[in-house]
Write a structure and sequence with these properties.
mainly alpha; rod-shaped; single chain; 2 helices
């Protein structure tokens, strides 16, 4: 089983999360290792969700600055 890697950024976390999904989907690990990877995956998913939320907020703030309004705008508006 690959060692747990330190998360440096969103891309690294997303890649590791994909790796974990592939490993777990393989079904070759003992239960305790599967649970350990699952826990790591949950942490990575939370890290990625937080990163996406921060990026969305930054984009909304940039849109506010560009168009001169103070309304929070969604990506699709």
């Amino acid at each position: 089983m690959p060692k747990k890697k330190k998360v440096a950024d969103f891309e690294t976390a997303a890649e590791r999360l994909e790796e974990i999904v592939d490993i777990i989907d393989g079904g070759e690990l003992p239960l305790h290792e599967t649970v350990s990877l699952y826990k790591e995956g949950v942490e990575l998913a939370a890290f990625c969700a937080e990163g996406l939320q921060k990026a969305e907020q930054e984009v909304m703030e940039l849109r506010k600055a560009v168009d001169g309004t103070f309304a929070l705008l969604k990506f699709d508006e």
